[in-house]
Amino acid sequence: MTVTMGLIVPGLPHPVLCPDANPGYRRLADAYGRARELIAAQQPDLLLVYSTMWPSILGHQIQTLPHPEWVHVDELFHALGSIPYRFRIDAEFGQRWKDAAIVRGLDARTVAHHGFPIDTGTVVALKLLNPDNAIPATIVSSNIYADRAETIVLAKAAKDALAAQGKRAVVVVVSTLSNRLHTDWIDPAADAIHSAKDEEWNQKLLEFLGQGRLEDVAQLSRVVQKQIRVKKVVSFKPMWFLSALMGANNRYVGEVLAYEPVHGTGSAVVALTPTVASLGDKEFDEEDVERWIGNREVLDAPPRAGLADAADDDDTDEVPELPTAAPVTVAPGVHVAASRAPKPVGAYPHARRVGDLLYLSGVGPRQPVTNAIPGGPIRYDDGSPRDYDIAAQTRATIENVKAILEESGSSLDKVVDVTAFLVNMDRDFAGYNAVYAEYFTDVGATRTTLAVSALPTPIAVELKVIARA
Amino acid sequence: MPKGRIVAGLLAPHPPHLIYAENPPQNEPRSEGGWEGLRWGYERLRADLAKIDHDAIVVLSPHWQTYVGWHFLGVPRFDGLSVDPIFPHLFRYRYGLDVDVALAEAIEAEARSAGLVTAMMRNPDFRVDYGTIVSCHLTNPAWDKPIVSISSCRSAAFYNIDVMQAQAVALADATVRAIEKSGKRVVLLASNSLSHRHFTSEGDVPEDMSREHVTSHAQHLWDMKIVNMLKSGRTREVVDILPEFSSQAIAETDAGSFTWMLAALGFPTYPAELYAYGTVIGTGNAVMGWFPKEAP
Ligand SMILES: [Fe+2]
Description:
Chain A has helices at 14-17, 23-42, 91-103, 120-129, 148-165, 196-210, 214-219, 221-228, 238-246, 304-312, 390-407, 425-440, and strands spanning 3-9, 46-56, 60-63, 69-72, 83-86, 108-111, 137-143, 169-174, 252-262, 265-274, 335-336, 351-354, 357-360, 415-422, 446-451, 461-468. By secondary structure, chain A is an alpha/beta fold. Chain B is an alpha/beta fold. Helices cover 36% and strands 23% of the residues of chain B. In chain B, helix 7 (217-231) packs antiparallel against helix 8 (235-248).
C-alpha cells in the first residue's frame, strides 16, 4: 500500500504561535503531537502535503528545493509572531510527481527558488508534524480553477510516482472544515465557531470522518463549499484529493483528534487509516477519472464553432486532430481513460488491466471530442429510423478500439477475443463482416457476433474486446 | 501648515511580467522584453509624475489579502526578497522600501474611528506583497518616496462586493481626512488589473508576444466599456457597475483598490489620462491617471 494514512489538519498559525491563548489552541497543538506519533508509527518514506492555502494558476506547482528556508509571517495574523523554518523536501519525488501529472494530461511544474513563499498552512503542518525533518516532505499547490476531475487526477499522479519509486507516504491535507473567520478582532479566550450553521455542518463532517467515511465526505465537497466556505477557490478540494489518493472508498478507521474554533473557523485534526471492516462502499455517483481531458487551454484551442459544425454533420470523417499522448504503460489493476477515444457514456473506464490481460469496455463508433457517428446515427432525433452506413460505423469502431489499445500500451494485433453486438443482424452482418476482415484476418482472435435490441446511443455496432497487455 | 492633498490617483496594475520584461537589477530572471505597449505607457506616466511634487505614495494591493480588516504596513523600512507565488520563474525581486509610518498610522486611526476593522502591521519579518512592489516599482523605480501600503480586506469574498465597495468608500474618506491633516502631497495607487481571466498555461518563452492576447472577446468588450467610461469622466457609473464587471470579467476590481481610489478622488467627472491598455497572460490591464486641479 503506497498511502498508509491520511491526515486532515487546519492551517492557521495559532497552535504554533500562541497555543496557550486558549485551551482549544492547546488541544489542537496536542492533537498535532498525537498525529506526529501516528505518523512515526507508520514509518513512511514521505509526507505528502496538499495545502488549500497555496493557490496556483498555471497548473499545479510542486516544491523541489531540497531545503527551503525562511522566516515566515502570516499575512493576516502577523501580530502573533514569526515562524522560522527549514524543511527537507524530496526533490526527486516532486520531479517524478510532476512528470506523472503531465502523463495524465495535467499542467504541472516544479518550483525550486530560494525565497519562494511557502504558505502558512504548509509551514504550520510541517513545523508541528515533522519538527525535526525526520521524514522528507513533498508539497503541492491547489490550482484555483481546478475542480474535481483535475484534483483527483493530480492525486492519482502522486500514486503513480509513489508506485514508481516504491515509496510509502502519509498524506496531509491542510484545510479547516468551515473556513469562515470572524471579521473582527476577538479575545482569543472567547473564540467560538463563526455561526451555528457552520458548527452543524462541521459536526456532520466529523461524524462521517469519525466513521471513516472519507469518500462520502468527498462527495459532499461542493455542498460544503457552498454552505460553510468563503468563496476563495471554486471548490472544497482537499477531500477529493485525499480520497482519490487513499482509494476513493469509506473503508477507514477515522479518529478525530481535535476539533476547535480558531478565530471562528472549524479547525479539526483527523486521522484516517485504511481498514477492511467498516461501513464500506456506498453510493458513488461520479466518474472515477483517470486522465485529465478537459480543455482549459486558451492558447491553442481549436475554434469552438468548428467543433460544433463537425458535431452536427453526421457524415463527417474529418475529426479535429488531437494531441497524441505518449503511450502509457499500464500497471496491473489500473484503469485507463484513453484521450484519443470517445468519452465513456457511463461511470466506467475505457480499459482495465488484470494480470497480463487488458479488458476493454464496449466500444462504439462515436468520435472523440465531437461525438459524431461516422456513417450517421441509426435514427433521427424524433426516433424515426434513418439510413446509415454500417461499414463506416464498423471502421470507426475498430479505430476507436485501436486507439484505446495503443494508449494502454497494447495494439490491435494483440487482441485475443472479440464480442460484437449488432442492432440489425440481417441488414448489417455482411457490411460489418467485410470491414472486420480488413483489420482482423491476420490477428486470429476468437469472435462472437450477437444481435441485440438496442445499444445506449443511436449506433449500430459495438465491440467488446480482450487483448494481451 | 497647508492642507495636505491628493495630487494624483493612478490605476497602476501589477503584473510582475512588466518588471521581468524590463530586466531591472533588482529582478533575478532575465528576459528578452515583451509587453512594450504597457511598459511605454508606464514610461509616460512616470514622466508626468516627475512633474508633480509629492511626498508619499499610498498603494492598496489585491495581493495582501486579509480576511479580518484593512491592514497597514507599520515598520519604517523593509528589505527583502519577493518571489511571485504564481510566476516564480519570472519574478524574484530584491526590494528595499521606506514606509511613511506616520501617514499610515493617521489613515489607520481615521479608518478605525469611522468604524472599519483595521490593524497596523508591526512585524519586521513581514514580506511585502508583490502587488505593492510591482505597482510601486513601475511608478517609481527609484524608490525615493516613502509608501503606505494597505491590504485588501476580502469583504467581497466573505460577504459580497457591495459590502466591499461600502467599506472601500469609507476607507477612502478616512484616507482623504488623514492626508488633509498631514499637510502632505500624496499619490494614490490602485494596484489592480481590469478583466482577470488568466491563461492557465504558458509558452516556453513567457515574453513571446505572438501568444499574448485577451482571453476572450467578452473580456475585451468589458474592458473597453470600462476604459471608455473612465476616459469620459463617468467614474461614478463605473463604480455602480463594478459588481457586474467584477463578476463577469472575473476582474481584480473585487479587491476594493479601484473603488477606494476613485472615491478618494471624489469620483472625478473629468476625463482620465489613458497611458496604455494591454493584456498580460490574457488579463486586461489599463494604466490610467487622474490629476485633481489645485484649488486656486
Ligand atoms: Fe494580481
